[in-house]
Specification:
One of its GO terms (molecular function) is hydrolase activity. With 271 residues, the protein is an alpha/beta fold.
Length: 271
């Protein structure tokens, strides 16, 4: 694996202030948070795949709104069928048990079998209903304009950005992930588009050896990539959705990690 499974640090955090501007709605049987840019343009889209706290967490929604303010249509789906982990949930909850669906009313496991279709449904919605284009110019028989969908993956969600980073088949075109978990070497080797990674100096889930392993794989596949390391912060920081903003290091990391993503998309989502 290029990253370890989530641990307790994945569901600790401090709520950031603000009021979400987007809306919650239903899509193919699951809930999705959608934020539009001021122009209401849907030409460029970003799909945010969340950490285990899910799409209703205000910090995640504020990040989505920030991308929208920079000109992007943003979708944030519920990856967990209402079974997201509450913020600062007691340590008694086992992460593997949660992932296997033990806490879900119907026993639905939070595994690729159930999450991949949610990602696919969002991408289809963005390309059809919202008309987000594709940078794949070889298949213009289906999509007449060049493409533009980027994806952001935080912790748990990073795995699914990596799994679906394949513009050749109208999946995700450009990826950005922060402190990934559950990503396998095979998944990382399988990407077909540019990938940017934001990493914490201290991270038991994505430690230095896993980061270096990921860098070697990215070198081998010879696609555009970026790995930024943020000093003085731990696993939760890069989320940039759960850092304690009273900490200067966390505030710097939040703002800089967001700019990292924004600059990456501006470079690689253009025609």
């Amino acid at each position: 694996m290029t990253s370890f499974p989530p641990e307790t640090c994945c569901y600790k955090g401090i709520k950031h202030e603000g009021t979400a501007k987007g809306k919650l709605s239903q899509l193919s049987g699951f809930e999705v948070y959608t934020a539009f840019p001021e122009s209401q343009s849907t030409e460029k889209g970003i799909l945010i795949l969340t950490d285990i706290i899910g799409h209703k967490f205000i910090n995640t929604q504020l990040i989505a709104d920030q991308f929208a303010e920079n000109g992007y249509l943003v979708l944030v789906p519920d990856l967990f069928d209402g079974d997201a982990v509450p913020l600062n949930r007691p340590h008694g909850m086992g992460m593997q048990a949660w992932r296997n669906g033990v806490h879900h009313p119907q026993g639905t496991a939070h595994l690729p079998l159930n999450i991949d279709p949610i990602v696919d449904a969002c991408l289809a919605e963005m390309r059809t209903k919202y008309g987000c284009k594709s940078i794949n110019t070889k298949l213009t028989i289906f999509y007449l304009l060049p493409q533009k969908i980027g994806a952001v993956g935080y912790c748990f969600g990073a795995k699914y950005v990596v799994r679906h980073l394949n513009p050749d088949v109208f999946k995700i075109d450009v990826g950005y992930i922060a402190h990934p978990s559950f990503v396998t070497m095979e998944e990382l080797r399988g990407i077909k588009g540019p990938l940017s990674i934001a990493a914490a100096e201290t991270d038991a889930i994505f430690p230095a050896e896993k980061r270096h392993e990921s860098e070697e794989i990215l070198k081998e596949i010879s696609l555009p990539y970026q790995v930024n390391l943020y000093g003085g912060v731990t696993h939760g920081f890069v989320f940039a959705v759960r850092g304690d903003l009273k900490s200067r290091a966390a505030l710097f990391a939040k703002e800089t990690a967001f700019m990292q993503a924004l600059q990456w998309f501006r470079k690689h989502l253009k025609n």
